[in-house]
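Following up on my earlier thread - several people asked me to post the actual chain instead of describing it. Fair enough. Here it is, all 552 residues.
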Amino acid sequence: MTFLEAIFERLQGSANGPVLREIRDGQVVPVTGGELLTLVQKARTFLAAADLRAGDRCALLAPNSIRWAATDLALMAEGIIVVPLYPRQSPAELAGMLQDATPARILCSDASMAHEIQKHWDATPPITLLDTVFGGEGNPSPTRPYRHADAQAVTIVYTSGTSGEPKGVVLNAANLTHILGCTQAGLDRLMGSRAEPDRIFHYTPFCFAASWILLLTALARNSILTLSTDLLKLSVDLKLAAPHYFLNVPTLLERVRTKIEETTQNRGGLAARIFPRAQRAYLARRNNQGALLDSLCLSLAKGVMFPAIRKSIGPSLRALICGSAPLAVETQLFFMMLGIPVLQVYGLTETTGICTMDDPPHVEPGRVGRAISGIEMTVDDNGEILVRGPNIFSGYWQRPVETAKALEGGWFHTGDQGEVDASGNWRITGRLKNLIILNSGHNIAPEPIEQALAARLPEVQQVVLLGNQRSFLTALVTTAPTNGSEHGQIRSAIQAVNAGLPHYKQVRAFHVVPEPFSIENGLLTTNGKLKRDAIAARFAAEIEQLYQKKPA
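Reply from S.P.:
Thanks for posting it. Predicted structure:
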C-alpha cells in the first residue's frame, strides 16, 4: 500500500468522524473523513476537466485551510506534482519560483494575489481560484488514487539557497513513505496505545516540508488536526484545540516563555519571589547543586504554580514538538521545568524535513535526538553533517550541477555542523554557509539584502546582516560619521528596501560602525570577503543591544 492509499483508506474508515478542523473567528469548523473525501473528489473532477495529467506540475498558493489539504490530496491522487508556495512571500519572489517550476496551472486562494503575480510574470499559466475548484460537483464514482512509483516525484518544495535564489527540492514517493513511517512510529512512542484520536494543533504553513509531513501523518493516523488561521489568536485557538501535541518554531516557544516570566513578575507578591527561585533551583538540581530555600520554592512551585501554567498553555499537552531552527537550551529547560517535554526534530527540506527525532523517554536538552530509522549520519573533516538514506531528495529541479554538489560522494551535504554523543544523540553546533536561519524557521540569504542596502547608501563601506537564531534581522553598517545625518539616510534606505520584502526578510534595527571592516583589523579575508563570525564576536555587545530594543 502506498502512503497515499493509506491516507485514503484511513479517511474512508473515519467517514463519520472528524479528521480536520479550522478555527475562524473563534468558531471551530470540522470535516469528517467522508466530507474531506467529497472535497477531494470535487477537486479531482475539476483537475480532470482542466486537462491536467499525471506528471504535470501545478502550483498551490494559499494559506492553510481544509481546502488546501483537499486540493493537495486531489493533486497527488491524480499523479500531478504539487508545487506549494508561501502566500506571504513577495509577488516578485513568487513569480520567480513559478517561472522556475513552469507549472501547467496555478491554484490560488484569492484574486488579488493572482493579479499581483500576473503583474510580475507576463507568461503566467492559467490561474484558478479555489472557489472555482470546489464550485462544481464531484464524480459520483470516485477512482482510487494514483499509484506512484517509488522514484516518482510527488512535490517540488522551494527553499532558499546561499545565493538568495530559491531552489526547487524534488521529493519522491519513496521519500514520503519512509518519513511517514518514522513519524508514525515516533508519535506512537509519545502517545502509547490508545483508542481515542490524537488531538493536534497546527499553525505552521503547509508549504514548508516539516509542516506538510505533519499534515500527511495526521491524515494517515487516528487523529484530529485543528488548523489555526490567525497568528494573532494562537493562544485563544490553542485553548479551543486542547491538543496533545503540536509542531512549533523556536520563536513561539520563546515568546511564551517570556510572557510567562513577565506575567509572573508583574503579578508581584509571593509568586514574583518564588518563581525565579524555583527556576534557579531547577537548574541547580540538574547539576546536583542548590540552596535549601530555593529547593523549597521549587517544591512549592511544582505543587501550585506549574500546574496552573500548564493548564493555561494546554491542559492535555503530552509534548511540544520543535523544529526548523535551533532552540535555546534555556527555553527547552524552562518548559521541562513546567512539566511539558519539548521534543526536537532536525532536518532540511532536502531530507524530507527530518533527519533526527527526540525519543520521548530520552530527551537531552540542547540535542536534537537520534537519527531516524533507516538512515545514516556522519560528519566530515570540517564537522559538516552528511546524511544518506531513503529520506534524501532526488535532486534540485532543473539544477544538475547544484544537485551533484549537494550529493557529492553519495552523501547529502547539509551545510550544518554538528556532533554526536556515544548514545547517538546529535547536537547542531553551527552552520558552514552564510545562510541566516531565524528562530521562526525562515531561511534568508544575507547577500541580496546587503547589496540592495549598499546600493542605496553610496557613502557606506559595508552592510552586514545579522539574525541567526534570532526573531528578526538587524544590520551593522560601516560609514564615517558626519553630522548625524547618516542615521536618517540609513533608516530611509532600510525602509525603501523593506517595502519590497516579505515580513521576515525586513531589517528591524541597525548599528553604525564608524570604521570600515578591513584586512588590517581582522574583519576581512585576504580576498576581501567578510569574516562574519569575527564581526559578530567583535560587536557582540552592540548586537545584543539591537535585540534588547523592540523591533521597528
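The chain has three domains: 3-244, 251-315+317-431, 445-548. That should answer part of your original question.
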